[in-house]
Fold:
Amino acid sequence: MGDRDEVPSDGASNDESSQSPPASFVEQANVDEDLTDTFERTWPECWDRAGELLEWDDPYATVLDDENPPFYRWFPGGTLNASYNCLDRHLESGRKNHAAIRWEGKDGERRTFTYRELYVEVNECAAALRELGVQEDDVVTIYLPMIPELPITMLACARIGAPHSVVFAGLSAAALATRMDAADSEYLLTCDGYYRRGDAFNQKSKADNAVLSVDANVTTVVVDRLGDELPHVLGSNEYDYEALLEAHSQETVEPVSRDADDMLFLMYTSGTTGEPKGVVHSTGGYLAYAAWTARTVLDIKPEDTYWCAADIGWITGHSYIVYGPLALGTTTVMYEGTPDYPDRDRLWEIVERMAVDVFYTAPTAVRAFMKWGKQYPERHDLSSLRLLGSVGEPINPRAWHWYREHVGGGECPIVDTWWQTETGGIAISTVPGVDEMKPGSAGPPLPGIQVDLLDSDATAVDPGETGYLTLERPWPGMAETLYDDDERYVAEYWRQFSDPDAGEWRYASGDAARADEDGYLTILGRVDDVLNIAGHQVSTMELESAIAGVEGIAEAAVVGGSNGGDVYAYVSTEGATDDGDALERRIIEAVETEIGPIARPETVVFTPELPKTRSGKIMRRLLEDVTNDEPLGDTSALRNPEIVGEIQSAVRDQ
Ligand code: 6R9
Structure:
């Protein structure tokens, strides 16, 4: 394995050297032929390939009904049940004793569920929910941390046709209440508390506070996660999960046949402004797309042990911990803890012990691994790994190389997957057995996906130029609408670039990107994350990538000062910084060479960590408030709220 010093240091520009997947990977890949032309010729029927991955109760009549855009209906006429597709059919195909979920809890606590065991518990839970009064189409809110009861309750809801709305366990009582009210949800599944880094957190008291302010008369089910460590008393309308299951021991519930476009779940995404948006996903299109992308891009096979180290409270966990992998009948790993507890090699210890084949995580995690050093992955045999994935933010080339070298043994292909809560599944990525990889670029759109980069007049921009990332055609995983708000759905995502009179519809992702001559896309982040410096538009991501390319820097976030123009850079380093001044000079130099002197940061603030959301995205809005000494908005969505005070005092000391 090479030294960190051997990892090329580069910034915003793409690493030109494209890399082919190793022959050993190609030989075994699920997809080893370029499907782009086939999909072009046969669109939209090509999506039959995704539909075929599922078992339907009634077959669909056609693949796509586009009569009423942008409200597309995928697989119309088809009926199916998602829990049947993730469980029952695998029992029938002889996989009943195969591990479905391998859960790893705090301090090495472990639970494995075979497909049969998962089936039994999902059925008992479904029976219990029915008895509590949950009916088809009732929205059930799930406010659980990364414990097996989270996917179990999701699948139980799916079984009885009740859409779930998972609210990330770290969110506040107020955030939970807003989401329950917005979805008219009368049922809440939660727990007494959970562990983080060895400390017990009280979840029930947050849930109680939320229920007090929710309009509906809420029925609550409580999972006892902490036992005697956090005793709790059940009030009226509150039920113990374990007791409910016991009362329905070994009962089975006939899976409810749902129309393909019936809602499977909704997921709130906070976005950058305004009320949270309740993104609605369908049963047929979503599940088919999650399974197809998991098979095509993540190369998942039934015999694999596959690990997506994300939270299920984020769309990534829905599609690629729960629905995609279970639809394919594989073993999906679920980890409750943090990557550095009890030590910084925790993830690698799990990869080695479970012989994980495919590992999928976020760049923020990769940059943390880099910061901690290669000695942690080096302690373990990671040779079981075949493929690595990245999701959630752009992965800068230096982090990409580090990931491949020190986790992937210099061999594993990496898929840098771009997608959104609204796309339901991966939309831009290399297909790992087919396409060359270019570090810093997510890759071409997947077969069947049509990306256009446009300027504000909806004219296509040239290669090398920055444009709005838009999708020209519907795809099966796409959101159906925003809950109870078709109008806002059209306004947020379709109005900007569509021409309804001409019958032309185009999805606006809200991201900016740049294409190279080969059509590989470099994602530059949210359109709102663009700074206006002396009349020039500079993407924060490009600035951050230039800074993170400096030797010794782990991560950077830039924001603008309120007086216009001034760039503030918040930076965390790989180890202790003994010479902040020298590092600051190198940062400024890197920005001047790679972007230009106008973008030179006025102030560089060193901080041990950057404020991050549940999915590891840097919360720039908060840094802006800190920079401009504004009152801080809601910080409850942060995974590391303790860092804010530290950053505030660092800024004051400047
Ligand atoms: C899956 C997920 C969506 C936003 C998206 C974009 C950013 C996601 C990315 C990426 C660059 C990648 N994003 N993947 N940016 N490269 N590979 O993250 O969903 O939480 O809705 O966020 O994340 O800005 O628009 P979500």
In short: The radius of gyration is 24 Å.
